[in-house]
Amino acid sequence: MSFKRKDLLGIRDLEVDEIEHILEMAASLKEINTRTIKKVPTLRGKTVIHLFYEPSTRTRTSFDIAAKRLSADTYSITASASSLVKGETLLDTLKNLEAMKPDIFVIRHTASGTPHRMARHTSASVINAGDGMHEHPSQALLDMMTILEHKKRLEGLNVLIVGDITHSRVARSNIWGLGKMGAKVILCGPKTLIPPEIESLGVQVCYRVEEAIADADVIMVLRLQKERQQQMLLPSLREYSIYYGINRERLGKAKQDVLIMHPGPMNRGVEISPDVADGPHSVILDQVTNGVAVRMALLYLLGQK
Amino acid sequence: MVNGEEHEGNWILRNGRVLDPERGLDKVCDVLVLGGRLVDISPHFDLPSDRLSEIKEIDAAGKWVVPAFVDMHVHLREPGEEYKETIETGTRAAVAGGYAAVACMPNTRPVNDCAAVTEFILDRARTRGSCHVCPVGAITSGLKGENLSEFGELRDSGAVAVSDDGRPVMSSMMMRRALEYAKTFGLLVISHAEDLALSAGGLMNEGPISTLLGLRGIPAAAEEIMIARDLILAETTGCRLHVAHVSTEGSVRLIREARKRGIPVTAETAPHYFTLTDDLLMTFDTVYKVNPPIRTSRDVQAIREGLADGTIDAIATDHAPHSAVEKDTEFEYAANGIIGLESALPLILALVREGILSPLDAMAKVSCNPSRILGVPFGRFRTGAAACVTIVDPDISYVLDADSFFSKSRNCPFHGHTMQGQVVMTFVDGKLAFSRI
């Protein structure tokens, strides 16, 4: 199949065959990253602008490496959303950059829906690199790629996502992606961190990790931000760690071949204990490696136009 | 516009379906206006031939002839935000929508919390306005929630009510004192019911759609808790309460029960709350961003039932103009608000076509009911009184074009929608203030 979209804004609006196509493409491009000379001329002459209105190291670097390995010219613009409010609007920034004829914008923003709005205002392709609490499609794709590598399938797997679901775009994109690919998604966290009526997205919710851990083929551990304490969502990180932290003891009740994933950055000792993060079930660094491959695939597919 | 020099204030509106909700009149009649005053309504007037030249005759056959509307909740943005709307443009929008009187909320810059601002608004309305403006004062100075405004002076300078619209009174004690102090001066208290702690950071209705979109939700409870509080305070103090822009099923239920128990409460809603649902936000279009937020189809249904059974007395627009600077931005940063003066009528008529309201009941919600609640003399046909009349074509079908609005702003979610029903003419105090012909 050919990929017909101008933009990659979210997983929710992707078809199953599109997801499969991206994942196959990523698998075939991955090999480039292991060569001595890690560069192919595929996107030579194409311009990619990274527009990051939220701090990011991993995702921005990953997109930048992906673009450069495909020989695209890349430029990074980082700003805080607050400076944007004071000065030039994001739309004006986009229009000015567009006048310089880029081919692809990679946009991250703190406000949900922003890449979608930007995509309507530019003829260049837009890749959503994370918008607010809404979607983070490249993360879900690299997560699916990592699971596929280890489990050879997505269909029928039980994937347990533990932590702050409310504020997580990673969780939302994975809920869509894994659901479309036939996996069963179970969410676990204190009710203060589970958004209202999330069951309407086709997932199950449980409040006790112990109940869900035994059946899980994959456990995705989400980052818990320290600010959640001030927002009346949690009494303390300590109690969170006691009841929801993934540690060796809890993992003792899990399947032998369970995969431990984390989108990063990790709070070691809070949502995940160091021995689990670095232990034999952890595929956390595989996720990072696959991130480059998935982003190469996205840039390649959108850059063909 | 019709040039009415030689027959200034002398009109006969022939053969219209005259609807006067206050007295339950629904009949094809002529309406005679002489010297700007309503002379009479009668099945047929024979005019003496010698006076014919002085009287402009208008054929209203097939049209509704109704008391010009009263909008008890608008934002005219003047003083302070004249780039969004002015008293001049806002009242022009009002008469184009069939309104002869609008009550403007106090969240201007400066806030209307004193006689000087109220007098300024009334003065502007007299010199530049197209219709009556009824200022609503602030409950607390600067809407800060710290000190009561001077209700006595506000009333004596022309304020018709006090409200906390836009910046809710969070202190229950302050709200109690406001109800009591307002009663001293016979002023109505209009409550913008919102628990700011529960709605903090909220961008849309809390529910499956907010969860899906990753937009922080405003739960129905944020509105309902404050309505419950204010109803209890109204009961405790025996003071009258009016609830602004009711948007949830639970709010309708609370008000319905309170009325049954004899608590002196009235309520209004706005057309978007009985027309739109929160799934429209799936495109992140900021035109749908409003506070209280657009809710679910269940809430829409409950609002309609509340209108039908009289729990909700009035339909206001909560006309809230914003420029593209506030609206054409990231969803999170966009201002809340929808304009309504020039789109309300066809949405209200839709309720009539769907059998939810009779024509008389529908007109009552925008005429005698809000005027009774506010204690103003508009929204009814009174012999001898200055004639405020609106002629409505209930059947005409057209595509709504917000670019043709008299309002300065364009934040109308119904732009491009096919509508049925339109205001043809609006008379304010016997003068033709708006005509589409």
Q: Enumerate how many helices of chain A there are, as a single number.
A: 12
Helix content class of chain B: 25-40%
Distance between the termini of chain A: 15 Å
Q: Supply the helix-strand structural class of chain A.
A: alpha/beta
Compute the CA-based radius of gyration of chain A: 19 Å
Number of strands of chain B: 18
Main sheet: strands, sense, barrel of chain B: 8 strands, mixed
**Class inferred from helices and paired strands of chain B:** alpha/beta
Number of domains of chain B: 2
Descriptive report:
The complex is a heterodimer of chains A (305) and B (437). Chain A has 305 residues and is an alpha/beta fold. Chain A contains 12 helices and 9 strands. Chain A has helices at 16-29, 58-69, 81-86, 90-98, 114-120, 137-151, 169-180, 209-213, 237-244, 248-251, 274-277, 284-303; strands spanning 47-53, 73-78, 104-109, 125-131, 158-162, 184-188, 204-206, 218-221, 259-261. In chain A, the strands form 2 sheets. A 5-stranded parallel beta sheet of chain A has the order 7-6-5-8-9. In chain A, strands 2-1-3-4 form a 4-stranded parallel beta sheet, with helices on both faces. In chain A, helix 6 crosses helix 7. The longest helix of chain A has 20 residues, at 284-303. The radius of gyration of chain A is 19 Å and the shape is globular. Chain B is α/β, with parallel strands linked by helices and 437 residues long. Chain B has 2 domains: 11-65 and 385-435, Urease, subunit C, domain 1, CATH 2.30.40.10; 67-374, Alpha-Beta Barrel (TIM Barrel), CATH 3.20.20. Chain B contains 13 helices and 18 strands. Chain B has helices at residues 87-96, 115-128, 151-157, 172-184, 196-199, 208-213, 220-237, 249-260, 297-308, 324-327, 344-353, 359-364, 368-374; strands spanning 11-20, 25-34, 37-42, 56-59, 64-67, 69-74, 99-104, 132-138, 161-163, 188-191, 204-205, 217-218, 241-243, 265-269, 314-315, 389-399, 418-428, 431-435. In chain B, strand 9 (161-163), helix 4 and strand 10 form a beta-alpha-beta unit. Chain B is globular, with a radius of gyration of 21 Å. Chain B starts with 10 loop residues before the first strand and ends with a strand. Classes of the chains: A alpha/beta (305), B alpha/beta (437). The interface between A and B is medium-sized, with 26 and 20 residues.
